[in-house]
Amino acid sequence: MYRQMVQTAAEHGWGDYRAAPTFQDDVMGAYSYNNHILRRFNEQLKDCIDPNGILAPSRGGIWPKNLRDERFVNNKRDALRMKEGKEK
């Protein structure tokens, strides 16, 4: 239900400035102007500051370079386990 609310708000041009960690990827995805320039800028900045992606990976919908392929996994813990080669 919350994901649908984020999508509806984005269609009307409204944005959410704060969301629970579970929904932060959805909120960041709503800011889609110019092919997600805000997300790309934030990820590039994160890569410069934290090249190993150890400081709050995926927080705020900003994923480190080594975990971006797992961005769309529903559970961030599962994404980290997939990266480490472990099963759920």
From TrEMBL:
Domain of life: Bacteria
Molecular function terms, GO-annotated: catalytic activity; flavin adenine dinucleotide binding
InterPro entries, per database record: FAD-linked_Oxase-like_C, Vanillyl_alc_oxidase_C-sub2
Record's keyword terms, sorted: FAD, Flavoprotein
Record's protein name: Chain B, Stru
